[in-house]
Amino acid sequence: MSEKIEAKENLKPKELKNISSKQVEYHFDTHYKGYVTKINEIWGKLENADRSKANQNYSDFRELKVEESFNLMGVVLHEYYFENLSSTENKISENMKKAIINDFGSFEKWLEDFKAVGTAFRGWSILAFDLNIGKLRNYGADAHNMYGIWNAIPVLVLDVYEHAYYTDFGPKRAPYMDAFINNINWSVVEKRYTKSLNAYAALK
Ligand SMILES: [Fe+2]
Q1: Ligand 1 centroid distance, CA of 86 (Å)
Q2: What residues sit around ligand 1, an ion, with C-beta below 5 angstroms?
Q3: How far apart are CA 86 and CA 63, in angstroms?
Q4: Rounded distance from Cα 52 to ligand 1 centre (Å)
Q5: 75 Cα–ligand 1 center, Å
Q6: How far is the CA of 26 from the centre of ligand 1 (A)?
Q7: Which residues are CB-contacts of 49 (< 8 A; sequence separation ≥ 6)?
Q8: What digits encode the pLDDT tens for the residues 23-81?
Q9: How many Cβ atoms from other residues are within 10 Å of residue 144's Cβ?
Q10: DSSP 8-state assignment for residue 93
Q11: Side-by-side strand order, sheet with 135-141
Q12: 78 CA → ligand 1 middle, Å
């Protein structure tokens, strides 16, 4: 039997500040759930895909594996994104702030860089703990499966696809990013950071 996952309804954010329920509903119910449906469909088809016809130029097997990476990362990154959004829990702890200052020089420098990545890329701005270097870094992605860094654990994920903000902000990405910043669930971010540090210690 092929692997199957379900959408995590409990991650749907409620009553955010300056991001409407309609915007969240479209994003969660149409886009996120769409990736869940497709990854299940792909995994089902991969079970019986003809590996003997695998070909790098074109083959059904290749197309399934390429879209597996797109849809699986679509699920994973959206789950990180929705989970790190909340209208409460918005205060950053001294501990988390110190970690950011250590790796970026100052909190302001981090934020400037994080927003610049969100402006420069077409899909995602991600604060990640990079296990390759043992530090926090901002990385961008044009699509769910494009320019990701292997061994970097997402700690804070910002979706900058148009579908994340057009309902509320039209083409204006900057005010959406500001709204996002005001809705960051820093306690979730800190939990992920602590887990990343543990993973780094275990790998050393
Ligand atoms: Fe999205």
Answers
A1: 16
A2: 31, 159, 161, 164
A3: 37
A4: 35
A5: 9
A6: 10
A7: 60, 61, 64
A8: 999 999 999 999 999 999 999 999 999 999 999 999 999 999 999 999 999 999 999 99
A9: 21
A10: P
A11: 135-141, 124-130, 152-159
A12: 6
Give every CB contact of residue 191 below 8 A, 6+ residues apart in sequence.
none
pTM for this predicted structure: 0.97
Look-up of token digits 């097997």: 61
Interval between CA 154 and ligand 1 midpoint (Å): 15
- 94 CA to centre of ligand 1 in angstroms: 30
Cα gap 121→119, rounded to integer Å: 6
Give the pair of three-digit tokens for residue 174.
């900057």
Per-residue pLDDT of 146-173, as tens digits, reads: 999 999 999 999 999 999 999 999 999 9
By residue count, the chain amounts to 204
Using CA atoms, how far residue 111 sits from 29, 61, 101, 201, in Å, is 29, 41, 11, 27
Cα 163 to ligand 1 centroid, rounded to whole Å? 6
Burial class (CB in 10 A: 0-12, 13-18, 19+), 44: middle
Alpha-helix runs per DSSP H in 48-185: 60-83, 94-104, 107-120, 166-169, 173-182
- Structural domains in the chain, CATH included, are 20-83 (1.10.287.990), 94-203 (3.55.40.20)
